[in-house]
Design a protein that fits this description.
The chain is of the alpha/beta class and 257 residues long. The chain contains nine helices and nine strands. The structure holds adenosine-5'-diphosphate (ADP) and magnesium ion. The site of adenosine-5'-diphosphate has 11 residues, from strand 2 and helix 1.
Length: 257
Amino acid sequence: MGFLTVENVHHSYFTPKTVTTALQDISFDMEEGEFISLVGPSGCGKTTMLSILSGLISPTQGKVMIDGQAPNSNTASIGYMLQQDYLFPWKTIEDNILLGLKLKNQLSKEAKVKSLSLLKEIGLEGVEKQYPRQLSGGMRQRAALVRTLAINPKILFLDEPFSALDYQTKLKLEDLVFDTLKAYQKTTVLVTHDLGEAISMSDRILLFAAKPGRLHKIFIVPEELRSTRPFNVRSKEVYSILFQEIWKELESLETRE
Ligand code: ADP
Ligand code: MG
């Protein structure tokens, strides 16, 4: 059994007049330390899947287990990071990154030192006393990542964390996040609409189809790419081949609609 298991998950959203099947019969496993990406057309259920994995919502059917437990958004074991950084504007960067620890009653001196050194590792030394508005978008996303990692989660869920950034910043952050998550051997699920990002960061890619949201196909990223940093992956021949393969599959999903 894997570190994370998803078994026959269905999810429907109900409103008084409509039922939307956001996810239909999803099953997959993940190993500890693995990095997977969820890709697919808008509305195929990627965000719903992350909300279920993180325990924010319960699926209408099926089961999710993470390290032998059903996910619960109140436990310290899950880190969830969104497209927008959601740092509190009235708190300093230091207070923002320590907030999760404080809320979970885990703000020891040791935990604080560790979080501040993580800030340094990610290239944000010196911004501790600044406010989010004083930082660029890329810096804020890095601070948000530090906040997510500060609680030392067993697993990370990233929902399009780079999509609001300019291209150059995004490419740089991909490398930085890749290195950081590898160093801490974090199990990670990334949602992205950028195929290149999925290929360059992941071990496997789960392609979802829409209406209803379902798992269409799983692509395994070749070892040669997995062991290479994201920026360099993009210039490899194997990268282009895989990109074309997934692209074709995406196109075929769209023409089928
Ligand atoms: P993605 O992240 O891949 O774009 P979502 O998980 O956001 O997809 O949405 C999947 C489907 O569920 C879409 O049809 C969307 O309109 C619907 N949906 C998402 N959230 C809700 C909600 N809170 N209430 C009703 N329908 C929703
Ligand atoms: Mg989404």
